[in-house]
Design brief:
By secondary structure, the protein is of the alpha/beta class. It is built from 7 helices and 7 strands. The protein has 2 domains: about 140 residues, Rossmann fold (3-Layer(aba) Sandwich); about 120 residues, Glutamyl-tRNA Synthetase, Domain 3 (Glutamyl-tRNA Synthetase, domain 3), CATH 3.90.800.10. It is extended, with a radius of gyration of 22 Å. The relative contact order is 0.19.
Length: about 280
């Protein structure tokens, strides 16, 4: 019995990009981004993401943005920002004029938050963090309705403005953050709850979890066409549709100047200032 060798094809990422280019989905543009949080020095896993995002963009004549996820002031420092820039350049890549910070988007996020409240699609929720985790449910079990869900639009706007006006003792400008409420097992996530944000040292930072709202909206504001996440939460993973040709399970990384042996490699460490360089 003869065995047919399956036709090889590109990995799933390149297959999606090539299909998008063929159909003109993004106007033939390939725009990716590397979005580190400046809360420490980079490690070898970050090198993989850098080479993937910058390399894929270069392969298809596109560009890659460097966008810092600066939403946690307790752990972030300017030193880490500069170190990350140096590491990206050391790997042979450059972002050109496309350097961005998530904190620069917060005014737009605020405007969208007000719009959602006016539309009745968001409300001010006074549940604490533990209660939110209990009420929002999971991928397998539906969440419970918040006791604050049926507030009127007017009451929500008043409460939201009170947050912004420091009525709750924060003493800073407020900005919105989103929480996801699962309406049923396997259903799409709906933006429902808001937590507070504050402004510190002339830069916006978040109090609470910014991930769920900032992630999709930030991608939109970044004008990014293709998002290549390393290990996203299951709830946020994009479902890749099968194509007519077989796709390889192996992703070939364009590793630029970084040459890694299979075993025995250790990152150079410069004391506490060490990176994968």
């Amino acid at each position: 019995m003869s065995k047919e060798t399956p036709k090889s094809g590109p990995d799933f990422i390149r297959a999606i990009i090539e299909e998008d280019n063929r159909t003109g989905k993004w106007g033939g543009k390939v725009i990716t981004r590397f979005p580190p949080e400046p809360n420490g020095y980079l490690h070898i896993g970050h090198a993989k993401s850098i080479c993937l995002n910058f390399g894929i963009a270069a392969q298809y004549g596109g560009r890659c943005h460097l966008r810092f996820d600066d939403t946690n002031p307790a752990k972030e420092e300017e030193e880490f920002v500069e170190s990350i820039k140096e590491d990206v350049r050391w790997l042979g890549f450059d972002w050109g004029e496309h350097l961005y910070f998530a904190s620069n988007y917060f005014e737009q996020l605020f405007q969208w938050a007000v719009q959602l409240i006016k539309q009745g699609d968001a409300f001010v929720c006074d549940l604490d963090a533990d209660q939110i985790r209990e009420y929002r449910g999971t991928l397998k079990q539906p969440g419970k309705e918040s006791p604050y869900r049926n507030r009127s639009v007017e009451e929500n706007l008043d409460l939201y403005n009170m947050h912004l006006g420091s009525a709750f003792g924060y003493g800073f400008d407020g900005m919105p953050s989103g929480e996801l409420l699962w309406e049923g097992p396997g259903s799409e996530a709906v933006l429902k709850r808001w937590t507070r944000m504050y402004r510190e040292h002339e830069r916006f930072f978040a109090e609470g979890d910014l991930l769920h709202m900032r992630r999709p909206d930030g991608i939109h504001l970044d004008a990014v066409a293709h998002v290549l996440p390393g290990d996203p939460p299951r709830a946020l993973v994009v479902a890749y549709n099968p194509t007519d040709r077989e796709q390889s399970d192996t992703l070939t990384l364009p590793f630029a100047r970084l040459s890694l042996p299979a075993t025995g490699w250790r990152p150079e460490s410069g004391g506490e200032g060490g990176t994968f360089r």
